[in-house]
């Protein structure tokens, strides 16, 4: 676990943490509050006089805004024109902010021309009197280009177990948890999950997909040569939350939490010390924890594979929420797979080490290209299958 992360870096990534929240106390407190379910609001609305009800609906109506947005985004011509205006504005601010950067041709502001529809849209946008409508030049400090992790590979919410039914109960809360990974010194968003407060830390661990769980198992044949097959066994895990290490519960001092605690004691005294929690992850329900929003917590498994997870939201369960399938996966960043070094056409499936016929070692190569190089494996060459991203994806 990396313990030398600059706190300012984490705060800029996740935001300042909240005060500690006792999940169980939050549920008990919320249970005594009046319900704001849609059915209760509808009952209050129906009890109003007709005139008052109509006035309230007219005041709260956003039909005009909805119609304008729908007309804009449903028209490819208008949508492209509006998007081009935004891109041109942002590009102009970037150019003004970095005048010494490599010169690029300035993007021209799109012109509505003689198109009546575009002229109408442009005049409507120009007539907006809100001072915050136009993007100020200082906005370029808070605008970034889209990242791969912003996209969602899921077309709908993914259920971990569609057959597991969780009937609605007033004592249930939902926790939205986002999982991050490290990549070249930066922290990238990987997945977002929704769990019930009655579920455990073990449920959280097993819902997170990770390619480390698909690493092949190293085997020695009769000639002493190394080859790989199948998948390696899970050697345990630990979740570090608020200075407590919740292990996998392996007996005889083999728990991952015990190993982590023993390792940290050999480190410098400047490193934060973690206590072993009195309960393991299997028996620790989320509603028994005290958590902080926007505070990074750690998961370690498979040697030193590290995940950072952050609690984004704790709220009471609503009758319209899913009744089954928890934990849910609501976001999964698209997977970027390296292409074959030979054909550069398809994703690589093998890593070849020590082959003089290839330019690199290791060299990432696809199955067809490797078969075309011959059926026999030269002496000293090791072929390792790459993770297929199947477990949990």
UniProtKB/TrEMBL annotation:
InterPro entries per record: snRNA-activating_su3
Q: Name one GO cellular component term.
A: snRNA-activating protein complex
Question: What GO biological process terms does the UniProt entry carry, in alphabetical order?
Answer: snRNA transcription by RNA polymerase II; snRNA transcription by RNA polymerase III
Q: Does the keyword Coiled coil apply?
A: no
Question: Which GO MF terms are attached to this record?
Answer: bent DNA binding; core promoter sequence-specific DNA binding; RNA polymerase II cis-regulatory region sequence-specific DNA binding; RNA polymerase III type 3 promoter sequence-specific DNA binding
Keywords from UniProt, A to Z, are: DNA-binding, Nucleus, Transcription, Transcription regulation
Tell me where it mainly resides.
nucleus
Pfam entry (one) = SNAPC3
As for subcellular location, the record says: Nucleus
Instruction: Family membership, please give it.
Output: Belongs to the SNAPC3/SRD2 family.
Q: What is this protein called?
A: snRNA-activating protein complex subunit 3
Species for this entry: Fistulina hepatica ATCC 64428
């Amino acid at each position: 676990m990396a313990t030398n992360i600059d706190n300012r870096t984490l705060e800029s990534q996740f935001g300042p943490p909240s005060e500690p929240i006792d999940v169980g106390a939050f549920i008990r407190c919320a249970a005594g509050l009046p319900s704001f379910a849609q059915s209760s609001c509808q009952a209050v609305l129906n009890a109003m006089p007709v005139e008052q009800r109509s006035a309230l609906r007219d005041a709260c109506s956003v039909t005009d805004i909805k119609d304008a947005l729908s007309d804009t985004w449903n028209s490819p011509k208008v949508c492209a024109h509006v998007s081009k205006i935004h891109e041109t504005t942002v590009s102009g601010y970037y150019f003004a902010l970095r005048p010494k950067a490599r010169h690029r041709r300035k993007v021209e502001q799109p012109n509505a021309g003689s198109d009546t529809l575009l002229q109408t849209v442009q005049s409507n946008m120009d007539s907006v009197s809100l001072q915050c409508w136009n993007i100020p030049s200082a906005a370029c400090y808070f605008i970034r280009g889209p990242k791969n992790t912003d996209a969602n590979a899921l077309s709908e919410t993914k259920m971990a177990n569609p057959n597991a039914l969780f009937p609605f109960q007033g004592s249930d809360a939902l926790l939205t948890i986002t999982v991050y990974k490290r990549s070249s010194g930066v922290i990238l968003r990987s997945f977002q999950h929704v769990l019930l407060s009655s579920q455990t830390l073990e449920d959280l661990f097993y819902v997170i997909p990770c390619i480390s769980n698909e690493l092949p198992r190293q085997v020695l044949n009769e000639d002493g040569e190394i080859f790989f097959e199948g998948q390696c066994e899970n050697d345990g895990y630990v979740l570090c939350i608020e200075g407590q290490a919740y292990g996998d519960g392996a007996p005889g001092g083999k728990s991952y939490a015990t190993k982590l605690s023993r390792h940290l004691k050999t480190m410098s005294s400047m490193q934060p010390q973690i206590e072993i929690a009195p309960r393991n992850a299997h028996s620790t329900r989320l509603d028994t924890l005290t958590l902080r929003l926007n505070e990074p917590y750690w998961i370690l498994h498979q040697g030193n594979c590290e995940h950072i997870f952050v609690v984004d939201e704790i709220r009471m369960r609503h009758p319209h929420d899913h009744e089954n399938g928890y934990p849910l996966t609501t976001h999964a960043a698209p997977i970027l797979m390296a292409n074959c070094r030979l054909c550069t056409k398809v994703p690589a499936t093998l890593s070849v080490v020590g082959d003089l016929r290839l330019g690199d070692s290791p060299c990432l190569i696809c199955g067809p290209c490797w078969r075309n190089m011959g059926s026999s494996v030269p002496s000293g060459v090791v072929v390792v299958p790459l993770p297929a991203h199947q477990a949990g994806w």
